[in-house]
Amino acid sequence: MSNKTQDSFSSRHAAQMNSVYDDVFRDFSDVVSRNDFYGFVGEMTVGQFSSTLGLSRNSRVLDLCCGIGGPARYLARRYGCTVTGVDLSAANLLTAKKRTREAGLSDRVAFIEGDVLTANIEDGAYSHVFGCDAWFYFADKVPLYKLAHRALVPGGIIAFLDQSAEAPIRFTYENYIGGVHFESRASYETQLRAAEFESVEIQDLTDVARRDAAQVVMKAIGERQRLIALSPEIYTIYLEVQAEGLASLCCGRTSYCGCVARKVQ
Predict the structure, then answer these.
(1) What is the pLDDT of residue 15?
(2) Count of domains for the chain
(3) What are the strands, taking DSSP E only, across the chain?
(4) What pLDDT, on a 0 to 100 scale, did the predictor assign at position 254?
(5) β-strand 255-262 against 198-204: which pairing, if any?
(6) Which of 115, 136, 247, 255 has a 20 to 30 Å separation from 147 between CA atoms?
(7) How far apart are CA 90 and CA 240, in angstroms?
(8) Looking at residue 40, what is its pLDDT?
(9) What residues make up the domain containing 147?
């Protein structure tokens, strides 16, 4: 993809992200107690997954497509690591920086605005590259994985959370949040190896993701009046999106994965 084409795509995608993940969506997430987790899963799943990654106070984490920074702040609080988040949505990052200041984490969490594929990211500077329910927007994920490989120190780890589908699926919620591109587990592994990663591990986190997502649906129903007061139209959309994602996990159309691989050299 040429720079001009990439810039055009990034501008369109940024506009879409700003329209989807706006102030109302943020307020909905706060009401259902998502703790700044904008993705399909929240602290329950991220907590279980991150505990397997060997994070410590010495870790330097690059969070690609970080949204408003909920996972970044969670990792910094829990493990004491430093985290740099990258996102192309200016609106997301305004909230990310504000909430990071309010959490007293500005010394450990910082943000870069820009397209992750073209942003000024230092090579060989990070021990971990992390993603949470955000990389499914990439139809071709190999360039993203290659970027992660360049950003990591030798021995560094790429780790991301996302749904997996063994065959292409269309979701109704794509009408609201844009097109999604879930990979089969074999495809995740093949693409990671194409980016020169080794020791690929695919963790099955479907059970915990189902519980995580079910809590959101139940809380959205329980807080119906508060959410409708914010926006009746968005309430219906929000509940449909969450319910369809949960149903796809429950009936086996998708599973939920934690993907981990290592840069050898």
Answers:
(1) 61
(2) 1
(3) 60-64, 82-87, 109-113, 126-132, 152-164, 198-204, 255-262
(4) 97
(5) antiparallel
(6) 255
(7) 27
(8) 87
(9) 3-262
> Mean pLDDT for each consecutive 10-residue tract of the chain (265 residues)?
47 59 79 80 94 97 95 97 94 92 97 93 97 94 97 98 94 89 97 98 97 93 94 91 95 97 92
Torsions phi, psi of 32, nearest 5? -90, 15
Please, what's the b/e burial string for 228-262 (b: 16 or more CB within 10 A of its CB; e: otherwise)? eebeeebbebbbebbbebbebbeeebbbbbbbbbb
Contact call for residues 194 and 145 (beta carbons, < 8 A): yes
User: Can you read off the two tokens belonging to residue 57?
Assistant: 């106070």
Q: How far is CA 241 from CA 82, 151, 177, 247, in A?
A: 32, 33, 9, 10
Query: In this structure, what CATH number is given to the domain that contains residue 87?
Result: 3.40.50.150
Residue type, 139: A
> How far is it, in rounded angstroms, from Cα 75 to Cα 85?
12
210 Cβ neighbours under 8 A, 6+ residues apart: 246, 249, 250, 256
